[in-house]
Amino acid sequence: MIHLGPPHDSNFGYSYAKRLVDVYNKAYHQQHGCQFTSVIPTNIYGPHDNFNVEDGHVIPGLIHKVYKAKRKLHVPHHTAF
Fold first, then answer.
1. What is the CA radius of gyration of the chain?
2. Are 11 and 19 in contact (CB under 8 A)?
3. d(CA 13, CA 6)
4. For the range 24-30, what are the long-range contacts, defined as Cβ-Cβ under 8 Å and sequence gap of 24 or more?
5. How far apart are CA 8 and CA 42, in angstroms?
6. 16 within 8 A of 7, measured Cβ to Cβ
7. How far is residue 38's CA from residue 25's CA, in Å, rounded to a whole number?
């Protein structure tokens, strides 16, 4: 089971906001009979994140891989990749 115990104080609001998606889905199902599944990315990235592909977070690692591939192909910055 996920969501055991309170989230860490450093990301309290962020964590509870993500947890509430499950609560909303359950409440909507009980009231309207619709069943939903949510996909929620579990990490964020920023300028001081670990972009290392080997031991960093998933999203920053993917961003780094795309960045490297774009540089390798010499794709201009204004071009969608």
1. 18
2. no
3. 11
4. none
5. 14
6. yes
7. 8
Active site residues: 14
> What does the DSSP assignment read for 13-71?
HHHHHHHHHHHHHHHHHHHH--------------TTS---TTTS-HHHHHHHHHHHHHH
**CA 56/CA 53 separation, integer angstroms:** 6
CB 64 within 8 A of CB 56: yes
Q: How far apart are CA 59 and CA 28, in angstroms?
A: 30
Task: Please report, in tens digits, the pLDDT of each residue of the chain (81 residues total).
Answer: 566 788 878 878 888 888 888 889 999 999 999 998 887 776 666 777 777 778 877 777 888 888 888 888 766 666 555
Amino acid (one-letter) located at 51: F
Separation of alpha carbons 40 and 69, rounded Å:
26
